[in-house]
Amino acid sequence: MDRKELLTSPVRDLRINAKTTLAELMDQFGESGGFTSAKLHTAMTILRKMFSEQNTTFLSFPADIISTGTRGVINDLVRKGFIDVIITTNGTLDHDIARTYMKYYSGTFDYSDRELRNLGINRLGNVFVPDESYGEIIEAQVQPFLEKAYSTKKEWGGAEIIREFGLKMNNPDSILYNAAKNNVPVYVPGMTDGSFGSQLWSFYEQHHDFRINLLQDEHELSDIVFEAKKTGALMLGGGISKHHTIWWNQFRDGLDYAVYVTTAQEYDGSLSGAKLEEAISWKKVREDAEFVNVYGDITALLPLLVGPLL
């Protein structure tokens, strides 16, 4: 490109007030020049294409954000049909179940954890989770469900049993319920890592012929990927959720669209810190894909990013 081609989009000042809508703000971000504001606008533009085209859209995210109000934003994405596949961690099951039946509370990062322990309160960042709002309620809900599922058949796929549990919850505040209702499979490759997983183990200890077939999940993912005309992914945070998403998409030569929101940095070589550019070398993102890396806290950025699209 020559000099003239590079100097086509002048930076414009933001003009906002109490009446400025999210859509108007995001449009202005597109002309703001830098830094994360411009990336947010690019991300929204990519998501608009992903959501509107005939595209198989993956959503990946870690569990911690489901302990916050961000759960409601993800729920709306699922409920309104923007998402085709969810890949997440076991804690998402835990927090979605727990918050459907009990309450979590706003807390603080710097309260004495020794005192919280004595009070029967668990701290998740600056979210307070009472003992009765986590393990106890999850066990009370999951064990009777597993007894009923076991009486139907002895072996279940991971996404299959999550779908059945979601339907059982029958609550529109639940991500699992809305995913089940909208035929959005929820895949949890690390399914034993958390309270829901411990309930599976506990049930297995009493019924050694009970099976969760995670390879059935992989078979289903292979069908989804190989049959997709295009694929896109909104990846919130890294870890196993992000990797499983890009891992499966390498088998179709990579994602066509990708938006990655993270606080991780690439200096340590971690998957969470790896930019989407690195995924091109692994054929997990296509060379001609539309993609962007956005740095920041998902709980603050996601409502800005998808609000104008909802």
Strand percentage? 15-25%
Q: For the residues shown, what is the average pLDDT?
A: 97
Q: Identify the overall geometry.
A: globular
Cα(first) to Cα(last) distance is 37 Å
Low-confidence stretches at least 5 residues in length (pLDDT < 50)? none
Number of helices: 14
Order of strands across the biggest sheet?
Answer: 7-2-1-9-10-11
Portion in helices: 40-55%
Structural class: alpha/beta
The largest β sheet comes out as:
6 strands, parallel
Please state the CA-atom Rg, rounded to the nearest Å: 21 Å
Number of strands: 11
What is the element string, with H for helices and E for strands?
HHHEHEHEHEEHEHHEHEHEHEHEH
How is this structure best summarized?
With 310 residues, the chain is an alpha/beta fold. The protein contains 14 helices and 11 strands.
Report what the structure shows:
With 310 residues, this protein is α/β, with parallel strands linked by helices. The protein is built from 14 helices and eleven strands. The protein has helices spanning 3-6, 22-29, 36-52, 70-79, 90-101, 113-119, 135-152, 158-169, 175-181, 195-206, 214-227, 239-249, 276-281, 298-306, and strands at residues 56-61, 85-88, 105-106, 121-124, 127-130, 155-157, 186-187, 211-213, 231-236, 255-262, 285-295. Strands 7-2-1-9-10-11 form a six-stranded parallel β-sheet, sandwiched between helices. A three-stranded antiparallel β-sheet has the order 3-5-4. β10 (255-262), α13 (276-281) and β11 form a beta-alpha-beta unit. α5 (90-101) packs across α7 (135-152), α7 (135-152) crosses α10 and α8 packs across α9 (175-181). The mean pLDDT is 97.
